[in-house]
Amino acid sequence: MDAVTLEMVRLLSRRSGLARRIGEAKRGIGAPVDDAAREASLRSKVAAACAGEGEAAMASRLLNFLINESVQVQSDAAPAAATSHTAIFQEAKRLEEEGHDIVHMEVGEPDSAPPEHAAAALAAACAAGHTKYGTAPGIAELRDAAAEIESAHGTPLTRENVIVTMGARFAIYLAIESLLSPGDELVVIEPAWPAYAQCAMRAGVKVTRVRTTLESKWEPDISEIESAITPNTKMIAINYPNNPTGKVLPARRQREIIDVAARRSLYVLSDEIYAPYSLVEWHSALESGHDRTIVTQSLSKSHAMTGFRVGYAVAPPREAQRMARLQSLCLTCVPTPVQHAALAALRAEPPGAARETLERLRGLAPMAAEAGLEFDGPDGAMYVFGRLPRGLDGGEVALECLRRGLAIAPGAGFGGYGPFVRLSACREAPVLARGMDILNSVLSGGGP
Ligand code: PMP
C-alpha cells in the first residue's frame, strides 16, 4: 500500500509539472486554459481503460479532480485578466481615488440608502447589548422571519431550514463546499455570475457548462442539460432573474430543469437574490417541492444593504446544518448587530430600491439599442447584456470606456461571451445617459 501511494504521489507531482508547462505554452500562443475537446478525449480513454462500471465511476471522479488541479495550476499562473468585471471595478475605484470622475455601470449595486429602520436597528442592537457571539445558523427571530417569507412559495418552512449568511455569496460558497466533494460535478448554465464556477473549482468540484445564446433568448436546452449530467453530477445552479442577462425563465422551462434534477436526485441551487427585481411573472424554485432545493437570498439588492453583508440560505434541515457547521468554522456567525438590522429590514415593507432600478432599466434598454447593442429585452435584475456591433471585443471596449470615464462589465467574465458587455442600470437616468454618451463615442471611434 505504501509503495502504491508513494508512486501515486510521484505521478501526481509529475502531472502537475506537465500541467504548468502546458499552461505556459497556452499562454504563449494566447490559448484558453479550458479545452473541452482534449478533456473529452482523455475522459473516453480513461473510461475505455476501466474494467467495470464501479471502476469507471471512481476513475471519472479522480479524473475530475485531476482536471481541476490542472485548470487551477494553469489559471493561478496566468496573469489576472485586466478585463474581468471585478478588475474593471477595482481599476475604476482606483481612478476615482486619483480624482477622476467615473460613471459606474459595471456593478450591480442599488445606489439608494439602506432603509432607515435597518440602520436604526443596527445602532439599537449595539445599545441593547446584542454585541456578542451568536449561533452559527443565526438569530432565531431572523431565521423565523426568513422562513415565513419563503414559506409563501408553497413549502412550509421553519427556522431549521434557514441559515443566515454573509450575503448570498457566502451562502453559495457554503452550499457548494459543504454539500459537494472533490470529483463531484456541478452544472452551471451560462452566461452566469462567475462565483458558482469559482466556488466549485476551489472545492475540487468539476464544472460542466451548459451554454445558452442570445438567439435562443438565453433559454437552456433541456436535452443539453440532461446530457451534461453524469453519475458524478450532484448539483445544478440556476439564477433567475439572471445576472448578467436579466432573463426570467418561463415557469414551464424552469420546472422542466428542476424535474430533471429531481429525477436524478440532484441538488438545485437556486440563487434568487434578484427576485424583487422582476418585470414579469417569476417563480421560486421552492414552488416545485423538490426536496433537494437550496435557495439563496440576500438583503444586498432587495434592501440596498450591500455593505451590511447579510443574506440567507433555505435548505433541508440536514443540509442547513452542514452549511452552518462550515460557517461556524469559517467565521463563527454573521455579526450579531447586522442580523438585528436585517431582521428590522425583513419585518418592514419592502423598500423602493427595486422599483426605482427597474424604472431605470426600462430607460436604459432603448439607449443600449440606439448604441447598436443587440440584446434580449431584460425581464428583470438590473442589467442589459448586449452584443457589441461589428464583432467588437467586450474587454477592449470596456478598457477604452474606462479611459474615458465609464466603467462597464466585459462579457468574457460570465463564461466566454467575449463580444458582449453588461451594462448596469443602478444609477440615476442622467448619469446613465452620460455613460451611454461615452459608450457611443467609443463605439463610433470618436475622440473623448
Ligand atoms: N448572486 C448573484 C447572481 C449576484 O449578482 C450577486 C452579487 N452581485 C450575489 C449573488 C452576491 O450577493 P451578496 O451581496 O448577497 O453576497
Describe, in plain words, how this protein is organized in 3D.
This protein has 448 residues and is an alpha/beta fold. The protein has helices at 2-29, 36-49, 53-77, 85-97, 116-127, 140-151, 167-179, 195-202, 222-228, 251-263, 299-302, 317-331, 336-347, 353-370, 394-403, 429-443; strands at 103-105, 162-165, 185-190, 206-211, 233-238, 267-271, 293-298, 311-314, 383-387, 406-410, 420-424. The strands form two sheets. The protein has a seven-stranded mixed sheet with strand order 2-8-7-6-5-3-4, with helices on both faces. Strands 1-10-11-9 form a four-stranded mixed sheet. Helix 10 links the parallel strand 5 and strand 6 (267-271). Helix 1 crosses helix 3, helix 5 crosses helix 13 and helix 14 runs parallel beside helix 16 (429-443). The longest helix has 28 residues, at 2-29. It is globular. The chain binds 4'-deoxy-4'-aminopyridoxal-5'-phosphate (PMP). 4'-deoxy-4'-aminopyridoxal-5'-phosphate is lined by residues 108, 167-169, 193, 239, 243, 271, 273, 298, 300, 306, 311.
Question: TL;DR of this structure?
Answer:
With 448 residues, this protein is α/β, with parallel strands linked by helices.
